[in-house]
Specification:
By secondary structure, the chain is mainly β. 9% of the residues lie in helices and 42% in strands. The protein is built from one helix and 14 strands, in the order H-E-E-E-E-E-E-E-E-E-E-E-E-E-E. Strands 1, 2, 6, 9, 12 and 14 form a six-stranded antiparallel sheet that branches.
Length: 192
């Protein structure tokens, strides 16, 4: 998929009482048609801010322990995705927690956001795993915020194959169990 260049006539210099002139209306129609014709195919998965992915029933993570965040159980999503285009599924085996299964080979942008409860002690870590191994550029680690909640963001581009399994692992060293909510979004960009 390459970039597309479109020549759009200049917009009129003035508008009368907020009413679009014929030339302006034609420009808008041209842009709308261009968008319909050239918009990338969207194949992604994301959770809304009210139903983040949480490990365990309590959504709390033990200190000094790498914990894999569960996306569901018995092949069903824990929280209903607000977007699920392209056939994303949850691994259907008896393992717990279960991984997201990539529906189609291609280049993906994968983003994770982790919202840790307030606690100024220790470090926080969030990492993307692919088929059980950490991915290069897919980890963020740092000290807890001195006040308030600690938030971690990471985004990486991955070349994924159909049926690859994505997981998120978290860790913290506050000295006690700590609540967190993890959000994940994965967007297909192009075939490989």
């Amino acid at each position: 998929m390459g970039l597309c260049r479109m020549t759009v006539p200049a917009l009129p210099a003035t508008q009368s009482a907020g009413v679009a002139t014929s030339a302006y209306a034609n420009n808008i129609r041209s842009l709308q048609q261009w968008h319909r014709d050239t918009a990338p195919v969207f194949k992604g998965l994301a959770w809304d801010g009210t139903s983040g992915l949480q490990a365990g029933v309590s959504g709390e993570f033990a200190t000094a322990t790498n914990t894999t965040v569960g996306f569901g159980s018995a092949g069903s999503f824990e929280n209903t995705p607000i977007i699920n285009v392209g056939g994303w599924t949850v691994q259907g085996s008896d393992s717990d927690p279960e991984s997201l299964v990539v529906p189609e080979s291609g280049i993906y942008v994968v983003s994770v956001f982790n919202h840790w409860a307030a606690d100024s002690s220790g470090f926080r870590s969030t990492q993307i795993f692919l088929d059980g191994s950490g991915v290069s550029g897919g980890r963020v680690i740092g000290p807890a915020a001195p006040t308030g909640v600690t938030m971690q963001n990471l985004t990486t581009v991955l070349d994924l194959a159909a049926n690859d399994e994505l997981d998120v692992s978290v860790n913290q060293s506050s000295g006690s169990t700590l609540a967190a909510t993890v959000y994940l979004a994965a967007y297909w960009i192009r075939s490989t």
